[in-house]
Recover the amino acids of this structure.
């Protein structure tokens, strides 16, 4: 999962990354190849040590959850113009207006959302074609990420404003003013979620991230998936050890 380079505590190169400033995150080149990929992130820099030694890392295999009555996820998204950035690790979309979620009375502002292909989390042993991460931050700096699993199926028209302007070159930014998008339209109708405590899925792999992976996948067409993969090639981190963490799942539907 990635977040804006300019925002402390989040990731910038294809995940929910980083708590670092641009100068810090750019000191060490990391990626998804053998020489700089997930297997060696923890050795690339002392700042990335949690990628190797952390005990509450993400993503994970979502299986055998404990059902519980949990506070509802309240989505307060609205139409907004978009900034779309190819940061070299993913396509990252930043809304230009305020969008928020609320969890148990705490508000979290949507900082950005981005994509991984293939998906990072698995669900009941199943892998998915893609995954979308919507990264939010509370006033006290806590990150809350909504994960949406994506499988091949019908065309999803709500993604067209993004897919029509995918930046092909690393570093390319597109500001889309004449089109607005409501991130709520990108989500499934049922907002029931797996919940667990985890981390960023890219360096520096910071822990203390609240994860909410929706149990209902969405669909993109083969053409939409292919268009993304033509620009971003295999940017997923493998599942990490659970290390005794509890996975909770909402009882009933959360809309």
């Amino acid at each position: 999962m990635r977040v804006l380079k300019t925002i402390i505590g989040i990731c910038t190169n294809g995940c929910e990354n980083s708590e670092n400033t641009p100068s810090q995150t750019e000191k060490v080149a990391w990626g998804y190849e053998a020489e700089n990929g997930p297997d060696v992130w923890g050795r690339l820099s002392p700042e990335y040590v949690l990628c190797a030694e952390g005990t509450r890392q993400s993503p994970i295999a979502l299986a055998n959850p404990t059902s519980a009555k949990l506070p509802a996820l309240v989505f307060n998204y609205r139409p907004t113009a978009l900034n779309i950035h190819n940061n070299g690790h993913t396509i990252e979309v930043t809304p230009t207006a305020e969008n928020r979620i609320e969890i148990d009375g705490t508000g979290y502002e949507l900082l950005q959302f981005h994509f991984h292909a293939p998906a990072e989390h698995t669900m009941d042993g199943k892998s998915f074609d893609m995954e979308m991460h919507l990264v939010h931050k509370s006033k006290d700096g806590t990150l809350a990420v909504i994960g949406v699993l994506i499988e091949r199926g019908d065309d999803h028209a709500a993604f067209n404003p993004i897919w029509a302007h995918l930046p092909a070159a690393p570093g390319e930014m597109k500001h889309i003013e004449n089109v607005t998008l409501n991130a709520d339209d990108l989500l499934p109708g049922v907002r029931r979620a797996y919940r667990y405590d985890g981390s960023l899925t890219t360096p520096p792999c910071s822990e203390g991230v609240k994860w909410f992976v929706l149990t209902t996948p969405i669909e993109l067409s083969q053409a939409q998936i292919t268009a993304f993969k033509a620009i971003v090639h295999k940017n997923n981190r493998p599942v990490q050890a659970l290390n005794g963490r509890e996975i909770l799942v909402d009882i009933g539907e959360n809309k």
